[in-house]
């Protein structure tokens, strides 16, 4: 596989009006959907292509109600950067899997405070600090 940094490169531009922005968003969305099988193969993902496409749809739906044209342009730029980095294999597997993190570990949670997260050390499901203070 020959790495070509200009592969998939595009000029940065702004949308002329909402119809132009909609056309560009649709084009970007379709590019992502078409590349899902290739992404699955390149990164050896253990999930069906349909799940990858569902995640792509969710990412686009997150920004469905953006109503400022410059913000849409910025999101399009970010989308294309992600697309180029993904298909040029400039990402590592953890970078791709971060989009599926909540599916990976449904029990994952953030600590309530910094101190709780700092003091919470899990070892085989037991809180070591609690275990030490009980005299075990």
What is the number of beta strands? 2
How much helicity do the residues have? 55-70%
Radius of gyration: 21 Å
Instruction: Please summarize the sheet with the most strands.
Output: 2 strands, antiparallel
Helix/strand order: HHHHHHEEH
The chain-level mean pLDDT equals 82
Structural class: mainly alpha
Distance between the termini: 56 Å
Q: How do the strands line up in the largest sheet?
A: 1-2
Describe the global form: globular
DSSP strand (E) fraction? under 5%
Number of continuous helical runs: 7
Low-confidence parts lasting 5 or more residues at pLDDT below 50? none
Would you give an account of this structure?
The protein has 136 residues and is mostly helical. Helices cover 57% and strands 3% of the residues. The chain has seven helices and two strands; from the N terminus they run ααααααββα. A two-stranded antiparallel ribbon has the order 1-2. The protein is globular and about 50 Å long. The mean pLDDT is 82.
Q: Quick gist of this model?
A:
The protein has 136 residues and is an all-alpha fold. It is built from seven helices and two strands, in the order ααααααββα. Helix 1 runs antiparallel to helix 2.
């Amino acid at each position: 596989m020959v790495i070509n940094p200009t592969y998939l490169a595009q000029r940065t531009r702004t949308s002329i009006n909402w119809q132009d922005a909609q056309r560009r968003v649709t084009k970007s969305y379709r590019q992502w959907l078409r590349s899902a099988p290739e992404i699955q193969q390149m990164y050896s993902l253990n999930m069906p292509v349909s799940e990858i496409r569902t995640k792509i749809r969710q990412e686009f739906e997150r920004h469905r109600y953006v109503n400022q044209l410059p913000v849409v342009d910025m999101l399009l730029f970010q989308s294309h950067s992600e697309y180029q980095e993904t298909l040029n294999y400039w990402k590592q597997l953890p970078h791709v899997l971060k989009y599926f993190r909540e599916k990976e570990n449904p029990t994952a949670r953030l600590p309530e405070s910094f101190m709780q997260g700092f003091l919470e050390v899990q070892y085989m499901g037991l809180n070591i600090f609690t275990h030490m203070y009980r005299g075990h």
